[in-house]
Amino acid sequence: MRLQxxxxxxxxxxxxxxxxGNGKATAILFAREGAKVVAADLNLxxxxxxxxxxxxxxxxxxxxxxxVTKEPDAKGLVEATVSKYGKLDILFNNVxxxxxxxxxxxxxxxxxxxMTLNLKSILLVCKYAVPRMIENGGGAIVNNAxxxxxxxxxxxxxxxSKAGVVALTKCLAGTLARHNIRANCVAPGFxxxxxxxxxxxxxxxRGVEARVPLRRHGTGEETAATVLFLASDEASxxxxxxxxxxxxxxxx
Length: 252
Fold this sequence. Notes:
This protein has helices spanning 22-32, 44-56, 71-85, 108-135, 156-176, 202-211, 220-231; strands at 7-11, 36-41, 60-65, 90-93, 139-144, 181-188, 242-245.
């Protein structure tokens, strides 16, 4: 087991509907690989659903309700983790969403909200997780960015916030390496997850088949496999990197 004896937080561990989102899939995979998992989500029922799956497979996990865009909740999440399991080794920041207007047709409030949800949430959880990792002799942080960070995406706020995730991750990697803390990103492309269920239709499927070299959507489980690698000791000499989970979209 690649995470035996580790304690992990997955922020955004619930799915928005039926199916397997990136956070849910990662929490389950972490537990399968031996980690004790704190499954955090704004929707406690969704977090508890993830925990129920983990426990049904013989794993150990705890559900925790947190709005990690709020500093007290971010602090409370980390404190609850250390109180329950005694330490913190791994953090997967998966909270985020695409919303607001297209292009310049976006309100200032929607812009600010996107930045808060997708970027500030990562900063706040890291603010309290990093000292605990330092106490523990090191750790691994994986942040969920997006392929939208690298091309002219029509949703300006979403694309800009995800580019910020990549930049923040590089900052974390550069400044925390001396503490044996690694920080990396995953950048999913077109994924078949509950977050995009409302826009999944034949037109989207045909578009993905035309644009993506592997000619299909990815899955939450495929994102999770990459997060697991980056969180594990197998990636012990990798930090500050962004791994594209995109079916080859980035080579087009």
